[in-house]
Specification:
51% helix, Butyryl-Coa Dehydrogenase, subunit A, domain 1, globular, alpha+beta, binds flavin-adenine dinucleotide, 3 domains, 431 residues, Butyryl-CoA Dehydrogenase, subunit A, domain 3, 15 helices
Length: 431
Amino acid sequence: MEEVSIEIVENRFMHELVSPGDRFLGDIVRNFVDREIMPIRREMEASTRGDFELVREVQRRLVGLGFQGAFLPPEYGGWNLTSALSYCIVLDEFSRGEPSCIATLGGGAWAFRPACIAGNPTLLEDFSPRFLGSDPYVACFAMTEPSGGCNIENLDMKGKGIHTRAELDGDEWVINGAKVWPTNSGVSDVYCVVCNTDPSLGDEGIALIYVPVPIPGYSFGRFEDKAGFRSSREGDFYFDNVRVPKEYRAGGPGLDAELLHDNLVFARLFSAAWAAGIAQGAFDEVMAFSAERKVAGKPIRQHTLAANTLADIAIGIQVGRDSYVNAAYMFDHPEIYGKRTSKHMISRSTVAKVFCCDMAVKATNQAMELMGNYGCATDYHVEKLWRDNKIIQLWEGGAQLGRMDVARGYYDYDQFYENDLYDLMQEMRRK
Ligand SMILES: Cc1cc2nc3c(=O)[nH]c(=O)nc-3n(C[C@H](O)[C@H](O)[C@H](O)COP(=O)(O)OP(=O)(O)OC[C@H]3O[C@@H](n4cnc5c(N)ncnc54)[C@H](O)[C@@H]3O)c2cc1C
């Protein structure tokens, strides 16, 4: 593949914002992706239609690199890798190759993050050693329910969209409910279950409770069959009077709602980087292809029309990166930019997520067009990146709730302004 100007690559990120440590981390991941993933990404996708063994093998190698427990505090054996910007850099590099196989490890870090932030000693003592083993120890952040994902992510709903109930019985939580679509469904060793202790309490009723499996009362339905993101597994699972110790609640009333919102903002940021990396992968492919393939007597990319399109893709990627780097830096520095779950921060992180996802959908589409038939041929990778990216645009509130959250940063937008629509809907349903 033809080299892009070295100055462009080296100055992709402002050195004042992205530390040498994070750039070094990015280099490690880039090398891993080039060496271990690029040559076999087609076979990996084929493996997801079979026994999944090749995907699991790559995930085992990633565990060997030490990424699995990196998010844990140093006193529990981790590297304290908690910065949103570090996660963004890692995901940007990964998704250039095979975006979904990192979801297994990344989903685990995301799921255990609330326990780490809360500093819950029981959870840290019971689970940290398992994340530090040499085999994958898989975790899942289980939020979405059959009645909808956005109803849970929507701040205006104040937890009313969470139907999974947790009741305290003596020293144990008793959990009942159903979850659909969480990453690592059915393959997890521990679930962080987003529950409600009492819908009338609003945010105070939100509870994040950890459930290790197997455990009596837990059952799994089936895996979803998706267009893209095939190395990651999603499905539905059920809790029927599942009992766990009361110390397995991450924080407590009020704090758990904060932890949920904090995790959502964090996920918007890393989703932005995930999408930017996908666009980069498609850009690399189309740059190489359009340098070789000739139409009307010269390489495709020497036609003005194509140069315009390539420039548009490059503009989108760079502006997307600037957007997530700025927002992640702000998230990582609450001492300067304020609370990480403020309306301002939710808005800024969502600007990055919505922009990068829309941009990558367009970029993969444009790359495909410049490549003609080969854009949709499986011998190349643009069609795969095209499929993989769409899903990122749909998760974490999708493009619509995302835009509502952007608006919240600019004025006092409230979906239920002067009418409690949700309560009204529930009332009508009861009649
Ligand atoms: C590959 C993949 C991985 C995932 N991983 C996880 C995970 O790890 N954990 C987890 O809990 N979930 C996960 N999800 C689920 C995902 O976050 C949800 O699917 C997402 O929030 C959308 O929820 P929904 O499909 O129920 O859409 P709905 O909530 O039914 O929304 C449908 C449509 O309505 C729009 N909409 C929603 N609310 C409003 C509103 N108030 N006003 C106007 N429009 C609105 C949405 O933008 C969307 O276009 C994953 C999904 C996928 C595909």
